[in-house]
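It is worth pausing here to work through a concrete case rather than discussing structure prediction in the abstract. The textbook approach is simple: state the sequence, then state the predicted structure, then interpret. We follow exactly that order.
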Amino acid sequence: MNVPVLMYHHVLPKPGFITSSIKQFDAQMKFLADHGYKTLTSEEFYLFKKKKLKVPKKSVLITFDDGWKDNYVYAYPILKKYNLKATLFIVTNWIEEASKKKGEFDPGAINHGKCKTEIAIYPEKVVLNWDEIEKMSDVFDYHSHTHTHRDAYFKKCTWNEEFPLTKEVMKRRLGIDEKHLCWPRGYYDEDLLAEAKKHGFEIFYTIERGLNRPNGNLERIKRVAAKKDEKWLHKTLRIFSNELTGKLYSIIKPR
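Step two, the predicted structure:
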């Protein structure tokens, strides 16, 4: 058995680079709800991978990266409407900066490029704050996407600093003894993997396509970047729920 893991970043009025439109996202979530898919929590997925939990055949893990405010404005109400669960990998330094003062979502942040332009100047307008994260906790669970995402918007960190800093914030703010880590932009190597393990991380999420079987291997969780509409989702889940087609497709198109 394989559990497909979907990867999202933004949900905004119009689709674009690493962005699903509101219409596309709603259609995809409706498809999951209408067709009886179980959206796993991160803990359920972790236990499934460790062969400690049996999950329904039609299971999927929904993940979001970074912690953009549009996740609260647009994605959260849709997920809640369909009674679905999701995991959000947050950049802890970004959330800390965005939480220093109140800010309403900037409707001018209409794509990923605009959000990246805004973040260093007005993080409170484009990045989630801790209050919003708490409000979404009935739908989302939260894990680390490192402390800075390897972007020097607010501070610079060495890789060796990233791991303890993000763990400290996750513990202090959310009470989590963090073991999940999502690699920024999917970048990692064997040395980084070994260093992260020294800091207590156990399960690692990539941007590589592939199968997620209950085999105890937590080093390279494979994810599929979400695209298009519910027809794309139906096709993708069909491919990656089957061991043969999922393996072939991940070889032909690894990302």
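Step three, interpretation. The mean pLDDT is 95. The two ends are 21 Å apart (CA to CA).
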